[in-house]
Amino acid sequence: MNDHIPMKPETGLDEGIGSIAIIGMAGRFPGAPSVDALWQMVREGRHAFRTFAADEIEDAYDEATRASPDYVPSRPYLDDVGMFDAEFFGMYPREAAMLDPQFRLFLEICWEALESAGCDPFTAKQSIGVFAGSAMSTYLINNILSDRKKAEAFTSGYQVDMFNELVGAINDTLATRVAYKLDLKGPAFTIQSACSTSLLAVTQACQNLLTYGCDMALAGGVSISMPQKRGYIHMEGGMVSPDGFCRPFDAQAGGTVFGSGGGVVLLKRLEDAIDDGDTIHAVIRGYGVNNDGADKVGYTAPSVSGQADAIAAALASAGIDPDSIGYVECHGTATPLGDPIEFNGLMNAFGGDGAEGHCALGSVKGNIGHLDAAAGVTGLIKAALVVRDGDIPPVANFVSPNPHMALENSPFRIPTELVAWEAAGAKRRAGVSSFGVGGTNAHVVLEQAPDRNVLSETSPGRTLILPLSARNEATLAAMRKNLAEALRESTEPLATVAHTLQRGRHAFSHRTAIISRTRDEAIAALESERPISGAAAQDAPPVVFMFPGQGAQHVGMGGALYGTEPVFAEWIDKGADLLEPLIGRDIRGFIRLPDGDAPQELSEALRDTQIAQPALFLVEYATAKLWMSRGLIPEAMIGHSVGEFVAATLSGTMRFEDALGLVAARGRLMQSQSTGAMVSVRSDAETVEAHLCDGVEIAALNAPKLSVISGTFEAMDETCAALDAAGIAYSRLHTSHAFHSAMMDEAARRSKKRLQRPNTAHPPFPIFPV
Predict the structure, then answer these.
(1) Which residue in 640, 611, 630 sits closest to 735, CA to CA?
(2) Which of 342, 448, 475, 494 could form a Cys-Cys staple with 428, CB 3.0–4.6 A?
(3) How many CA atoms lie within 13 A of 680 on its CB side?
(4) What does DSSP assign to residue 142?
(5) Does residue 589 contact residue 558 with C-beta atoms inside 8 Å?
């Protein structure tokens, strides 16, 4: 199957069919550079409206206009819209300068949404779509076509001349540029419906997911108008606020205030999200989309019936009773005409028969203003957080209700403080509305995510790896700092953090890894003044597994892995059960880490070849299986002595059971031979040979100046004395016999017959025996 063809399941699941999971969210908002910061602002009832000083204003109004009482020098805005990491997205500075800040920011938050869901777009096998919209490009007019001559050249040569300026600004390229830069193969198209653009994009993403047009979808919108720090002219009865504040549902509401921002959600079919173990912030149960048609006083006016029909369609799509809705994130523009019409539309859709005040109303526009094409997805993000966390926040800037909204005896209320959502055991459900100029209405029904098993903090003693990577060292250093701060503030289990960093992040060239058992250890390592990091090779080197021979063993050599890694423990247990009747004891006693120091009896017993060799084989085999289960597959394997059998078994040359029996038999045969000694000598073979006594021979040449000698105890003592006299360094090995010498000839002869018994096959890996 093509990796980028949407994957339709062979069998359906009863739970979640037809529902869409929100598995990632990201955004930039006035006064809130992230989704978490926005949620904190909303919970506290704060706002980001800003009145500009005279020397800050960047608009083109003359002084007389600015002195008018109708001129309002206020607006919520974004900090640092000119900042963009062009290198990260593979852009030249000139290309980035031509690109509208809306598109730059949307690229960034799409990447963040994917990362928040643990999805690397460059390695994901699922088809990922993009559905998004943006506001008109004032950057093109204000910054690129900044004089009459440039504007005339642009329009005269349209669509060919000034092509770079064109593709950097027209809305058509918003979604497709994200698909291009992030290598997304699903449907990618721009959607425009004025203020309902981004929520409409969400509904179309849901539709594509449900019809298997893609497996995941980025959906959202962005609006950044240039210049940002500018005022506006208020007109009595018009759309904009007279005082620079947005007051949804309030008696003093006089209009909206437009701001800049962007948001995006990552969506996935619910059954797939459950199967993949994704974090689910909320579930989209249903949605409705329509248009007012001509049933209203004017093109730009809202319609009660149109809004009510869209909400009713969403409730019907979700298959739920409106009484089960406990919160509605309204369009909430705070206009004298808009708020009462929206309230009446809700009353018509809900029927007005529910318990009085059971459903809270909200509007994020009271916090950050009207974000135009990004307004709908911002409201969706807020509502998803309300449903997820079970906290209903206050409506910012609300004092007393609009007298044209008949709240008394209605199912609705306006919250004035942060309150816990009491759902009485039922799942929390919310609605989200977004209505566009021209009459395209969208409403989405959200539901609390299914109950999931939440991992607890990692058990003591388990070692975790937290890898980080970036495009350069400076960014990598910043990532270390950011992760340390996040670990301090987050309650997420360290094991899940490690899993996401290992499986859900793209690997860049500059890398580092933190190894820790506890959160405090991880923070300390991240803040170390001497971090271990480096640049990865352009081409990944081949992986070769190397397995040592006897002499590397020690009691408890697999204890930590046995206690924390199920794959490792599974193979140790399987091998131990096979070995017990062959060696007469449970070999796990040598492998698992004992309490306190290893008993002397175990250490002595492990020097016996008939115990040491099966124990080494089993630990090496189980360790290799553990690495392979994590995707580390060798291109070749090499082993020394008993390590050769491990390589042969992993390659498929012999079965695990046969190899284990052979190693146990080989160990017994070698143990039955006369005892002897082995010594590692730091010198070349020619020099060593000149000092050998009868009964000692060279057993192995491990390096040009590293040899191993083997022989009887008496002859070895004489040889070591000769080495001492010559000033040649050496060290005795922890072995019971003189392996790789003539003293093993009889064992080798008898092993040869035994070796002919196992079933063999052609190995898929090359093996280089030593």
Answers:
(1) 611
(2) 448
(3) 11
(4) I
(5) no
* 253-277 CB burial, b ≥16 within 10 A, e <16: bbbbbbbbbbbbbbbbbbbbbbeee
Provide the pLDDT confidence category of residue 767 given band limits of 50, 70 and 90: very low
Query: 125's torsion region: left (phi>0), alpha (psi -120 to 50) or beta?
Result: alpha
- For residue 429, which of 318, 266, 330, 263 has the smallest C-alpha distance? 318
Average pLDDT across the chain, whole number: 89
- The predicted pLDDT at position 722 comes to 96
pLDDT in tens, 460-510: 557 889 999 998 888 899 999 999 999 998 888 898 899 899 988 998 988
Task: Kindly give the residue spans of alpha helices, DSSP state H, lying in 211-359.
Answer: 270-275, 304-318, 338-350
Q: Are 193 and 220 in contact (CB under 8 A)?
A: no
Phi, then psi, of 553 in degrees rounded to 5:
-80, 155
CA distance 538 to 183: 20
Catalytic residue check, 110: no
Q: Residue 457 pLDDT more than 80?
A: no
Q: Are 556 and 598 in contact (CB under 8 A)?
A: yes
The rounded radius of gyration (Å) of the Cα atoms in the chain is 35
Share of the chain above pLDDT 90, in %: 65
Average pLDDT over residues 10-31: 76
If you ran DSSP here, which 8-state letter would residue 322 be given? G
3-state secondary structure of 266: strand
CB 351 within 8 A of CB 312: no
The residue annotated as part of the active site, out of 195, 246, 359, 720, is 195
Residue with token string 């704060």: 46
Q: Are 265 and 93 in contact (CB under 8 A)?
A: no
Nearest to 174 by CA among 268, 71, 100, 250: 100
- The helix/strand/coil state of 432 is strand
Q: Three-state SS for 163?
A: helix
Q: How far apart are alpha carbons 114 and 116 in whole angstroms?
A: 5
Rounded to the nearest angstrom, the gap between the alpha carbon of residue 215 and the centroid of all alpha carbons in its chain is: 17
Compute CA 542 distance to the chain's CA centroid, rounded to the nearest angstrom.
Answer: 27
Indicate which residue of 234, 331, 737, 740 is catalytic. 331
How is the beta sheet containing 359-362 ordered, strand by strand?
188-190, 128-134, 216-223, 261-269, 20-28, 282-291, 440-447, 429-435, 327-329, 359-362, 412-413
CB 134 within 8 A of CB 376: no
- pLDDT bucket at 762, cuts 50 / 70 / 90: very low
Span 73-95, average pLDDT: 93
Distance from C-alpha of 308 to C-alpha of 435, rounded to nearest angstrom: 11
Of 269, 263, 60, the residue nearest 146 (C-alpha): 60
Count of beta carbons in the 10 Å neighbourhood of residue 353: 8
Q: How many residues does the chain have?
A: 770
Q: Using pLDDT thresholds of 50, 70 and 90, give the confidence band for residue 220.
A: very high
Answer whether residue 596 shows pLDDT above 60: no
Torsion angle (degrees, nearest 10) of CA 360, 366, 369, 372: 20
Q: Is 214 a catalytic residue?
A: no
- Mean pLDDT value of segment 220-249: 94
| Nearest one of 180, 185, 174 to 208, comparing CA atoms | 185
Distance CA 735, CA 609 (A): 8
Active site includes 193?
Answer: no
Give me 290's structure tokens.
């329509």
CA distance 518 to 463: 8
Q: What is the Cα–Cα distance from 407 to 517, expressed in whole angstroms?
A: 55
Give the pLDDT band of residue 536 (cuts 50, 70, 90): low
Q: Exactly one of 234, 370, 510, 640 is catalytic; which is it? A: 370
Q: Is the pLDDT of residue 353 over 70?
A: no
Active-site annotation holder among 196, 641, 651, 741: 641
Please list the residues that pair with 223 across neighbouring strands: 261
Containing 264, the helix (H) or strand (E) segment is strand 261-269
User: Which has the closest alpha carbon to 465: 532, 404, 400, 411?
Assistant: 532
pTM above 0.90, yes or no: no
